[in-house]
Design goal:
The complex is a heterodimer of chains A (236) and B (332). By secondary structure, chain A is mostly helical. Chain A has a two-stranded antiparallel sheet. In chain A, a hairpin with a 2-residue loop joins strand 1 and strand 2. The radius of gyration of chain A is 19 Å and the shape is globular. Chain B has one domain. Chain B is built from eleven helices and no strands. Chain B is globular, with a radius of gyration of 20 Å. In chain B, 55% of the residues are buried. Chains A and B meet through helix 1, helix 2, helix 5 and helix 6 of A and helix 5, helix 7, helix 8 and helix 11 of B.
Chain lengths: 236, 332
Amino acid sequence: MPGIAAAAVAAPSALSGGADVIAVGVLLAEFGMFRQALLRDQVRLYAAQSALISVLAVVVAATRHLPDLYALAALSFALKAVIVPVVLRRLLRGIGAIGGDPRWSDIAGSHALSVASAVLVAIAVAAFGFFTVAALGIRSPVLPATALSVSVAVILVAFVLMIVRRDVVSQAIGFLSLENGVSLTALVVAAGLPLILEVAFLFDLLVAVVVFGLLIRVHHGRAESMSTADLTSLRG
Amino acid sequence: MQRRGPPETSTTVSPALPIPIVQLLQVVTIAAAAPGVSGVISRVEARLQGRAGPRVLQPYYDLAKLFRKEALAPDGSSWVFLAAPLGAMTCYLTVPLLIPVLTTFGLPLGYMGDILGGGFILSLASFLVAVAALETGSPYAQLGASRAKTFGAITEPVVLFVVFTVALVTGTDLPYALAATVRSSAGQIIRPAHLLAAAALFMVILYETARIPVETHSGTNEFGMIEEARPFEHSGPYFALLKWGSAMKQLILFTILLNVFVAPWGLASTPGLVPVLLAIAALVGKAALLGVVIAVIDNSFAKLRLFKITEFAAGAFLLAVLGVFTLYLGGG
């Protein structure tokens, strides 16, 4: 089959391949949050995902000689992989505790679909993201081959996470990881973005954490549960 | 493209083996080493649990004992019941001809079938065992057979997508070609498509070899049994063939993962005696290492509930599909 052999997809360079692998790791972490049943594990996965994005920022900084990205990587690691998870856990302490153990919160079984079907739906939505970006035909020597498609897929899967899970915490995590998808896109498309803008986005995130924390506490105070099913009665 | 024969070897130090002998050695290596690899896994698993565990050679003693015992067939079962173990064993003896077990160059019969061809033969073996299990009328064996076929149907798409990834990476679906591609550069190893396909294949192998997230392998009777329940009614030499066959299937799948995807190094590039012997040692060593990894997984995770196995399969499917996406829509 020598004729077909010519159609083989050439390997990307090792660095671009590495960046792609990290981007795919971010997407897999998103899928992990999607199916995770425990609040604690979801927050942990969010921290891991944020750490992966900081690693990618370091890789991009090294390959494209952008020193201020190192500062961004350090700041984003400190904020998203350490502070936000800690603040989230602090905010959620004692909420939804089962049997007095604050680690077990009632977000298990908040799937509107079964886990396997939800994953299939998310795969379909991610496929839509991949096809859309491929249809745009963006090619650039500095752009890792698949990272842009992957980042769009991360954003879309974060949306599906917020739609499919019916508990306040998953929706907060979905929103926060959506921001991770956006910063992944920013890293691969516009790595030279001024530092001040990126930092502004990061601090926006902190506001979002406080707002979501407040929402979760107020909702839990009123409804004695994490489920958003109770909110449907608010319909006019 | 692959060369269709061994390269010219004028500088080999060791005497060259005839090609048919090398080809035969592929089958013999798999058949002879398979029970040993199972023995290593159960030994390591026992040590990790703080037990002394069986000898590494225990599976060989088990097989020898079973071959000496008499064979019984349940009332009302037809010739299919007794023919199935022989048919399955034939399938498992055929597949090592198609995959790179010992050599980097394709052996003459290696081009009889591609990855899909090997997959078909493995499925045929599993089908024969399932038919024999249905033949018995025993509820346990039938339960195992029907479950194996049900979950087989949902892991099959994963295998297909892994094959698509291979086809997109190499432009062909011969296992030798992918192994050569992986050896060619570091870029081929850390591209996401390759890693995703290898991970998906590993998850399928955990399912196919009846390892822990899916099934306990210890041979105790319980309701969660799938693969292990099928040979319940077989006895004597026929049971020995089934046990040996499933050990061979395990080593065949390990070989595909190791010599095609993860670590295609240490294979003989010439048909010389020394390189081939080294390749045998390398394969056994790599399979034992993989066995240790699997034993650690066995001890680190709980068995999934039967209805959660679809989630496991969905996870493997996710990896395989993402592999194809990153390749097809981005060149990853």
